[in-house]
Write a structure and sequence with these properties.
The chain has about 160 residues and is mostly helical. About 60% of the residues lie in helices and about 10% in strands.
């Protein structure tokens, strides 16, 4: 008996990885909402994680994340309104503020970790420990390599040309 052909059989590996990442994002969104943290979006985690090491200036977060200061400021306002971060005076510069985790922010990061651990446990049940270890090793190897070189002008030329 032959195996039925699935749509994923025709997808490129990067597309499959993206689909898996999207499933993780949806799971995280559900898990956060289930814990009463529906205002925390998966993308907010990118701002929360660097704060584990202590308060950071919004401009430093923007530089680390490769986004605008305005984008970070908007996320910080949302997280501050939800009680996940607070802005405190920077002891090194009276003109600056540090974005710091609150107890709520630390709880949100614990929920993120619990969601990831639960997802990995489900994968271990489906794949078995050996295949999961191999999957982790493969992903780690791919991520350790140099990023693909992208010609920034190429993307601009394509969108400008209407392709």
């Amino acid at each position: 008996m032959e195996r039925e052909v699935a749509p994923s059989d025709f997808m490129a590996v990067p597309a499959l990885v993206q689909r898996l990442a999207n499933q993780g994002i949806e799971r995280l969104r559900y898990d956060l909402a289930d814990r009463g943290m529906a205002t925390v979006r998966p993308a907010h985690v990118l701002v929360l994680l660097p704060l584990l090491g202590g308060g950071r200036r919004a401009s430093d977060l923007a530089g680390q994340l490769g986004v605008s200061r305005q984008a970070v400021a908007q996320v910080v306002r949302t997280l501050e309104a939800g009680g996940y971060v607070e802005r405190l005076d920077d002891p090194g510069d009276a003109r600056a503020k540090l974005v710091c985790l609150t107890a709520g922010g630390r709880a949100a990061l614990r929920a993120v970790r619990a969601s990831a651990v639960a997802a990995e446990a489900e994968w271990a049940d489906r794949l078995g420990p050996d295949r999961l270890a191999e999957f982790r090793a493969t992903l780690t190897e791919l991520l350790a390599g140099p990023p693909a070189e992208v010609d920034p002008g190429r993307a601009t030329a394509r969108t400008a040309g209407g392709d």
